[in-house]
Design goal:
Structural class: alpha+beta
CATH architecture of the largest domain: Orthogonal Bundle
CATH class of the largest domain: Mainly Alpha
CATH superfamily of the largest domain: N-terminal domain of the delta subunit of the F1F0-ATP synthase
Shape: elongated
Number of strands: 4
Strand order of the largest sheet: 2-1-3-4
Helix content: 55-70%
Distance between the termini: 34 Å
Low-confidence stretches: none
């Protein structure tokens, strides 16, 4: 299912990205998509989107009302287009693809760091600098704590994973020993 959603969302995200670059409005479109994606993620609204009770015009007006005056004319047109095509539910995926393209375009890389213990700001900065030297790109780190790692960290940057956790090393050793 996730691959299907990505297949559906990608053309919208690509077209929006091209338009944002063309009009020099990457941040504006990032904000618009973030707002719309957050709105669609709301459990009450997502149930309403899936419901056949609302007509398409009512759904479009509801989304525009929720957004208030925060959408540009093109943002409003996007909402109407997605409603018309029954694609409102893929807004979070559209937003994600757009953000990935934006980060790539701007030479930045989002890195997820999972550690056994919470990282200090100094440790995040040091890790970001080391990754910047290795990957040659600006690094934006998000981190989370997972005590199951026992110790060390696991770094995920796109499709690259560096597992320096104790649990990862133990799993690797167990695999090599055939346990």
């Amino acid at each position: 299912m996730a691959a299907d959603v990505t297949t559906i969302a990608r053309p919208y995200a690509e077209a929006l990205f091209e338009r944002a670059v063309e009009t020099n409005q990457l941040d504006l479109w990032s904000d618009i998509l973030g707002l719309l994606a957050a709105t669609v993620r709301d459990p009450a609204l997502s149930a309403l989107i899936a419901s056949p009770k609302l007509e398409k015009s009512q759904m479009a007006e509801l989304m525009l009302d929720i957004a208030g005056g925060r959408l540009s004319d093109e943002g409003q047109n996007l909402v109407r287009l997605l409603v018309e095509n029954g694609r409102l539910s893929v807004l979070p995926e559209i937003s994600g693809i757009f953000e990935a393209r934006k980060a790539d375009y701007q030479g930045a890389l989002d890195v997820e760091v999972t550690s056994a213990f919470a990282l200090t700001p100094a440790e995040k900065k040091q890790l970001a600098e080391a990754l910047k030297r290795k990957l040659g790109r600006e690094i934006r780190i998000t981190s989370e704590k997972d005590p199951k790692l026992i110790g060390g960290i696991r770094v995920r940057a796109g499709d690259m994973v560096i597992d320096g956790s104790v649990s990862g090393q133990l799993s690797k050793l167990a695999n090599e020993l055939g346990i």
